[in-house]
From TrEMBL:
It is found in: Cell membrane. This is Mechanosensitive ion channel protein MscS. Keywords: Cell membrane, Membrane, Transmembrane, Transmembrane helix. SUPFAM superfamilies: Mechanosensitive channel protein MscS (YggB), C-terminal domain, Mechanosensitive channel protein MscS (YggB), transmembrane region, Sm-like ribonucleoproteins. The keyword Membrane applies. One of its GO terms (molecular function) is mechanosensitive monoatomic ion channel activity.
């Protein structure tokens, strides 16, 4: 009975391979997968333990190993099992190519995970608030590095499979030119986002003004930038349009230089006019976060004596500036009323040569004289 079973396993073949050899190959493949999986898990646990006591390198290694694909590991185990079989020469070359493909894909996955971790750590370290900067530079860096990585992996696999990659790369170059011409507007925004990322005229969280638009930057993408306006609505602008415009960035404002004007009427006493600059200076210096610069009688306008005053608010906050300006205005109203200085108001003088009734009488008199003459 046992001889029959042994004969069955040794003499029965599939594709020229006995059942016994197939079972041996499957057993080796399963054992290889289990051992490899256990070994990787063991290394991960050890590295994770080391990362809790040592530097960041162990943490990176542990995260990279967690990117091991079970599917690729199982495929590699099957290839180990196939190596136990007596395969024809042409199948051996194919198995060798599959080994390269599996290894290249797994290395690509590990490198992809390492790129993500490395960029995360870089932008976290170089961001002032200690968190990853949500900017176009981070997005472009990750995207560019991953495209380069998988391009190399793909070309390496194609070359190993016997594809002429020289002609392939040349055809990609011609196709790339055609695509670039078709999507030149998109590419313009893409390079504009790169310019924003490198030059950094603004970042997420900055309050900017572009022409008639004003708001806080919420997101800088590859094609557009999203801004939350003061009214609450979201404004979406193309990156190319933004860098071609003049941008006022108020987030980087350290101090505010304020210039305000007022006019006194011409019937204000001369002594009161002379006291006006000093009163303005006192009103400004009374504010804790304001620094007086100058106050002058600038000139003689058509309707008023024109004064120009300048002071510095030592904080960029807009609400604080308005509070200080309001306090100064109240102080000027109070002091000017005490010295008899009057603010000028627009006045239009109309010269009346004759009242309507008198004009009618004169016109009627002229008509009567004309009739008598006739």
């Amino acid at each position: 009975m046992s001889d029959r079973i042994i004969t069955l396993f040794t003499d029965t073949t599939f594709f020229g391979i006995s059942i016994l050899n197939l079972l041996l190959a499957v057993t080796v493949a399963v054992m290889t997968f289990l051992v490899a999986r256990a070994a990787i898990s063991f290394v991960q646990r050890r590295v994770k333990h080391w990362s809790s006591h040592s530097g960041a390198l162990s943490h990176v290694v542990e995260k990279v190993l967690s990117g091991t694909s079970n599917s690729l590991l199982f495929l590699a185990s099957l290839l180990v099992g196939l190596s136990m079989l007596d395969l024809p020469e042409r199948w051996l070359s194919r198995v060798g190519s599959l080994w390269f493909v599996v290894a290249a894909l797994q290395i690509g996955l590990w490198a992809n995970r390492a790129i993500g971790l490395g960029l995360d750590r870089y932008f976290t370290r170089h961001n002032p608030d200690g968190s990853q900067q949500s900017s176009a530079l981070a997005t472009l860096s990750a995207w560019g590095a991953r495209v380069l990585l998988w391009s190399i992996v793909l070309l390496a696999m194609l070359s190993n499979l016997g594809v002429n990659i020289t002609a392939f790369v040349a055809s990609l170059g011609v196709g790339g030119i055609a695509v670039a011409l078709a999507v030149q507007n998109i590419l313009g925004d893409l390079f504009a986002s790169l310019s924003i990322a490198v030059d950094k005229p603004f970042e997420v969280g900055d309050f900017i003004v572009i022409g008639p638009l004003a708001g806080t930057v919420e997101h800088v993408g590859l094609k557009t930038t999203r801004i939350r306006s003061l009214g609450g609505e979201q404004i979406v602008m193309a990156n190319a349009s933004m860098i071609s415009s003049t941008i006022q960035n108020y987030k980087r404002l350290q101090e505010r230089r304020i210039v305000f004007e007022f006019g006194l009427s011409y019937d204000t006493p001369t002594e009161a006019v002379k006291k006006a600059p000093g009163i303005v200076e006192e009103a400004i210096k009374a504010q804790a976060q304001a620094r007086f610069d100058r106050a002058h009688l600038r000139g003689f306008g058509k309707e008023a004596l024109e004064f120009e005053c300048v002071y510095i608010v030592q904080d960029p906050g807009y609400n604080l500036y308005m509070d200080i300006q309001q306090a100064i205005n109240f102080k000027l109203l109070e002091r000017f009323s005490k010295i008899g200085a009057k603010f000028a108001v627009p006045v239009r003088a109309i010269k009346v040569t004759a009242l309507p009734q008198e004009a009618n009488v004169h016109a009627q008199g002229r008509d009567n004289m004309g009739m008598r003459g006739a």
